Amino acid sequence: MVRIKEEGLQAVISARASDDGAGLYKLYLLGREGSLLLGTLLPEGGVLRLRRTIPLSQLRRQGLWPPSGAEIRLSHAFGGPAGEGERPPAGWTREDNPARLMGERLLKECAATLKGGLTRWEGEGFVLALPWEPGGVFPLTPLFCFASAERMDGRGYAVFRFNGRGCPRQPEGPGREKKGR
Fold it and tell me: What domain of life (predicted)?
């Protein structure tokens, strides 16, 4: 649902859509001269939302006021290994509720909106891979520094390592040494 209203010298555009987990959605304002990208809807309270306030003078100059409508478009489909019916890469299992694995309240809250992912057990902990492509919305933002970007079966993932209690561990790789070596 998109609402467009005039408030003084501003246009207030707000959008709300169900969070179906299918991908990233963008909002466009439509007018006689074309369309204007307003932004990406973000998860908030179990739904996707976006609100923008734009000067009417700017929209008139661009031939977008009065608008002929608005449109919410799927701009990036997540699909991939977390999708139904596809096999996960070798050694991985599908995880439809990553929040249940988190050991800290903040991480549980951040992971509550995530739809799917992949897991594999590693030593005394586990590895969680969440669909992600550069330029897309990053999953588990508080753990950005703990992630490594990896590709599996042609798809991008943010990969996180956790101990057995669901607390993050530093990724291993170039420039990082394992203790005891």
Answer: Bacteria
